[in-house]
Write a structure and sequence with these properties.
The protein has about 625 residues and is α+β, with helices and mostly antiparallel strands. The protein has five domains: about 5-105, GIY-YIG endonuclease (3-Layer(aba) Sandwich); about 120-220, no CATH class; about 270-380, Alpha-Beta Plaits (2-Layer Sandwich); about 395-550, 2-Layer Sandwich (Nucleotidyltransferase, domain 5), CATH 3.30.420; about 560-610, no CATH class. The protein contains 21 helices and 21 strands. It is flat. The model is unreliable at about 5-15 (pLDDT under 50).
């Protein structure tokens, strides 16, 4: 970052609006970072801009200030400071640093307070290689940080199996070694170290090993493998077969490690992959680093939204933060959509097909899994908060005026027009309330008429709700498309309830959501929690209705077969069916068997009835 100019305005004794307007008029058209302060002089927001004047002005125009959260922020702004930089990327990096330093109230919060381990190659003669969480600027080389400690230890174990390095902290100067100040230790005797401390390994040989280790921790497994294969060829030509066998084992170990790590084409080299999913309050961003076709780093972070930031804003901020944190110098970044901010010498790619597309899909699966796990934990630790978040999302997705804490869903069921029934299921606070479920027998409709059946049950249900002064639901869900929804609305009109309760229809084929008076359906994301709740209550209504329909149909079958017998009630018929399992077996039963179930007189009635047929 070069030529950074800082401008700070003191508060003058004038009206706040006039003072702010004067600052805005004086803002330059350069890229930079702006800071908003409250009346107490505390930073409440930090932002970046390609054009400071346009960006800051946008907060105070009518369209922007109509956003509720932005309105609150704008009302609290008492002072503005800004910093001019050369490029938009410089502004992004500076913004990121200022947010981390001051943690302003209205900025996106990166919820990640972990310290991650590094692999350190110590700046010393005969360098040690070890893991550490302390980044010390002493000239040592640090690789990482590793979001996965398991991955880091896998790499360290590979290095330990491939190479014999010292793990002591002796001061191995040339003078100390020549003066025989040290003795070989147990590590040498068990074959884990070549004892450079007593001159059994030269500094040149040791540094060749360190060069290979640097390539491995960078992810360049192929470079080390080629080096070992060349060395293997040389030892075989020299007929050093014992040494060749050891090298061959190392090559096999590298190949085994690489086969476990490679997930895409080996032609993909040094690429960063980012994906994002977000909801009303949070965004989750996954980062994968790929070198030679192997994922060598992977990490997911959570961002806490404050001002309804767009996915592009959030992803851009996360890219800058994660690339800095993980020391990435990749020239190619795979993203799910175009990024406007320019990163010097970096190309953003939005793949449509092929291996990079598969990588992006893998990243997306990772971030979605992370989000689901966070929500599971949230629902276990704080169920009310989890429910509240889902209800707020449903309110937004379904254009409701209040959270749908009480939902009622209706479904019709009939068999070729016979035995028409309907079912109502109820969800309260996103969970089934089975004690409130209801069955309906259709009374006024002849034949298979789903629309008329829906009109009848909606009228009957809410007429009773009004008469008994029960609480109305915040949302009614109709299993069906425009036709069923229109039929339900007819009943709400008759009861004077139209507009007083929200009602939608859901069509099964494409899961289309229909609203009253709107012929164009809404298509919710298939992964949307709002859609999942609607599908769940609809499926529950269908299941509950089918159960009732089968029961009624079975009773109808009983009536036509067994209850034709004079003196045999439904209860007696049910006893026979429970014992014999079918009417056919009842017909074939002996009189003694029937008498045992129903008693002498009724048993004889059934036996004589079928005997006479």
């Amino acid at each position: 970052m070069q030529d950074v100019f800082v401008f700070i305005f003191a508060v003058f004794p004038m009206e706040k609006s006039e003072y702010i307007n004067n600052i805005i008029r004086a803002l330059p058209d350069n890229p930079g970072v702006y800071q908003y302060f409250d009346v107490e002089g505390k930073i409440i927001y930090v932002g970046k801009a390609k054009n400071l004047k346009k960006r800051v002005s946008s907060y105070f125009n009518k369209d922007q200030s109509e956003n509720g959260k932005t309105q609150i922020l704008v009302r609290k702004i008492a002072d503005i400071k800004f910093i001019i930089v050369d490029t938009e990327l410089d502004a992004l990096l500076l913004e990121n640093n200022l947010i981390k330093k001051y943690q302003p109230r209205y900025n996106v919060l990166l919820k990640d307070d972990k310290t991650y381990p590094w692999i350190c190659i110590k700046n010393e003669r005969f360098p040690r290689v070890f893991s550490t969480r302390n980044f010390i600027k002493d000239g040592s080389l640090y690789f990482g940080p590793y979001a996965s400690g398991k991955l880091m230890h896998t790499v360290l174990d590979l290095i330990k199996h491939l190479f014999k390095l010292r793990n002591c902290n002796l001061n191995l100067t040339d003078e100390n070694i020549k003066a025989n100040k040290f003795k070989v230790c147990l590590e040498y005797h068990i074959g884990n170290c070549k004892a450079p401390c007593v001159g059994k390994e030269s500094e040149e040989e040791y540094n060749e090993t360190i060069a290979d280790i640097k390539e491995i921790v960078k992810g360049n497994i192929n470079t080390v493998s080629r080096h070992l294969k060349d060395l293997l060829q040389t030892t075989v030509e020299k007929m050093e077969f014992e040494k060749a066998h050891i090298i061959k084992e190392k090559i096999d170990l590298l190949d085994k490690f690489q086969s476990k790590s490679t997930v895409v084409s080996p032609t993909i080299n040094n690429v960063d992959v980012f994906s994002i999913v977000s909801d009303e309050k949070n965004a989750y961003i996954n980062f994968l680093k790929v070198v030679n076709g192997a994922i060598i780093q992977g990490h997911t972070v959570e961002l806490k939204k404050k001002l309804d930031e767009s996915n592009e804003e959030l992803l851009t901020l996360a890219i800058a933060e994660l690339r800095e944190r993980f020391n990435s110098d990749s020239k190619e970044i795979v993203v799910p959509f175009e990024i406007e901010t320019e990163f010097p010498n970096v190309e953003f790619i939005v793949p449509q097909r092929g291996d990079k597309k598969h990588l992006l899909e893998l990243s997306l699966r990772n971030v979605e899994y992370y989000r689901r796990e966070k929500m599971k934990q949230e629902s276990l630790v704080d169920p009310e908060r989890h429910t509240k978040r889902i209800l707020e999302q449903m309110k937004k997705d379904l254009r409701l005026t209040e959270e749908p804490r009480h939902i009622e869903c209706f479904d019709n069921s009939n068999f070729q027009g016979a035995y028409p029934v309907a079912a109502m299921t109820v969800f309260k606070d996103t969970k089934p309330s089975k004690k409130d479920y209801r069955h309906f027998n259709i009374k006024t409709v002849e034949g298979p008429d789903d629309f008329a059946s829906m009109e009848e049950i909606i009228y009957r249900r809410y007429k009773r709700v009004l008469e008994e002064k029960q609480s109305m639901p915040q949302l009614i869900v109709i299993d069906g498309g425009k036709g069923q929804l229109s039929a339900a609305l007819e009943s709400l009109d008759k009861l004077g309830l139209r507009g007083q309760v929200a009602i939608i229809g859901i069509a099964k084929r494409l899961e289309e959501i229909y609203f009253p008076g709107d012929s164009i359906p809404l298509y919710l994301d298939k992964r949307s929690e709002s859609l999942k709740i609607i599908q769940q209550i609809r499926d529950e209504a269908h299941r509950f209705g089918i159960t009732h329909h089968r029961s009624k149909r079975d009773k109808g079958t009983l009536k036509t077969e067994l209850t034709e017998i004079k003196g045999i009630s439904d209860t007696s018929a049910q006893k026979l069916l429970s014992h014999f399992k079918s009417v056919k077996k009842i017909k074939e039963a002996k009189e003694e068997e029937l008498v045992e179930i129903l008693g002498k007189s009724k048993g004889k009635l059934v036996f004589d009835f079928y005997k006479g047929k």
